[in-house]
Design goal:
The protein is built from 6 helices and 4 strands. The chain is α/β, with parallel strands linked by helices and 174 residues long. It has a single domain, classed as HUPs (Rossmann fold, 3-Layer(aba) Sandwich), CATH 3.40.50. It is globular. It binds iron/sulfur cluster (SF4). The site of iron/sulfur cluster (SF4) has 10 residues, from helix 4. Iron/sulfur cluster (SF4) binds next to helix 4.
Length: 174
């Protein structure tokens, strides 16, 4: 088995990614890195759900001590960009670079992201940013293929996971 660090945006998305990666014989570790989430309460809800999922599935979990202020600096000037546009690309870059750095620090040969399971996330853009972060380690897996998003909904119901109704930053709040 080959070790992989899975950038984890939330528990429902991670659930189906873990299932697929394990079926492909990867040894998965979760990396909760979500500096993009503007509300501390929302971040806590998502993290608590990821912790429960990690326990159910016996997957190691690491939590990135990120700072939303740093993230705001990183995306400065793009605050008003439409969702799915330049701000989101920069946001992907922020999380993927942190995940790449952690994978390198841990000596893990691969990393990838649960973000690609969402129909709202443009996988080619994610892959460009993943490769830019570390072309050797990044595994470009498009989890939304083979009905991945529907499977994440099923597993979220099975495990009783929290499902948010918006992406995460203050600019995406409903
Ligand atoms: S909408 Fe989502 S992906 Fe886009 S910048 Fe906000 S948190 Fe990041």
């Amino acid at each position: 088995m080959s070790a992989i660090l899975l950038h984890t945006c939330c528990a429902p998305c991670a659930s189906a990614c873990i299932e697929r990666l394990r079926a492909e014989r990867y040894d998965v570790t979760l990396f909760f890195s979500n500096a993009n989430i503007g509300s501390p309460a929302e971040c806590a809800l998502r993290l608590e759900s990821v912790r429960r999922l990690a326990e159910y599935l016996a997957v190691p979990l690491m939590v990135d001590p990120t700072s939303h202020d740093d993230w705001l600096t990183y995306i400065r000037g793009l605050e008003q960009a439409a969702e799915g546009g330049a701000r989101c690309r920069r946001c992907f870059a922020y999380s993927l670079r942190r995940t790449a750095a952690k994978a390198a620090e841990l000596g893990m040969p691969h990393f990838t992201t649960s973000l690609s399971i969402s129909p709202h996330k443009h996988s080619p853009t994610l892959f460009e940013e993943g490769r830019a972060a570390d072309p050797q380690r990044f595994l470009a897996t498009d989890f939304k293929q083979r009905d991945g998003f529907r499977r994440s909904g099923e597993l979220a119901r099975v495990y009783g996971l929290y499902r948010q109704n918006y992406c995460g930053c203050e600019f995406s709040e409903p």
